[in-house]
Request: fold
Amino acid sequence: MREQASNCGSGTESVRGTALPILECGRIAHRILAGSPVGIVCAVFRRSCYLEFVGGRIVCVGDRSLGRGPLNAQVGRFFPPRVGDVLALRVEGAKLWRPMKQNARVARASLLALRAAARERIPAEGLGGLVCGSSSPLIEHASAALAALDGWLGRERPGPDAEMLLGLGPGLTPSGDDYLGGVMIALRAFGRALDADAMWAWLEPRAPARTSRISLAHLAAAGEGEAHESLHACLEALGEGATAGWADRLERLAAVGHCSGWDGLAGVLAVAQRVAA
Reply:
């Protein structure tokens, strides 16, 4: 999706119309909206927009095609506003979404089935090629950072090269950020919550200088163990040992951002392959 504009925190107009009723939203979005229901539009797409609230907190508003996620707030009908518009949202009565609790295990047969289904679907851009061990110019460029992060996953101290993943790649949420988010989510899902906490503690002070506020909000959500429902569907299937249904799961994942779903999955598999049995 192409962004109309992105200028978080600048320019305001009067609140547009009455408060929009939210039908369903993620846990973090609900937490934000319950405390501060009025935000400024800072990025606009055909079927969704991002709003910034007090304290720089971010919520994504869109129609049902947006899907469920920690920052997502779904409305019945979405009409694209303008950057700088001030919108009020009504969260009372909204259904609350949060991902299911994950089994702290991965079946190797499920990993093999995922990779077989992914082989003909992985985009040429981004870091998704890591799902099947293939390369790309971005993967080659990020090789030192990926190696440093892999060493961390193997219980080494984080090397300074790992920081290069922050903000790496094009897009509203760069590939490197999505990969790091996938790693943190998988660490928490597969029984290494303390490592996920340590990674976020390391990333949080470094991220603001290297990536956008919107991507930082998604990274913070990943630090709490939450992402788009399509990535959690893959995590759940890995934990259940699923060997069927991967084509459908990956099709839904591919619809997230330009290649964000694939980048996040690559981060998940960096952890999953270490705990697979």
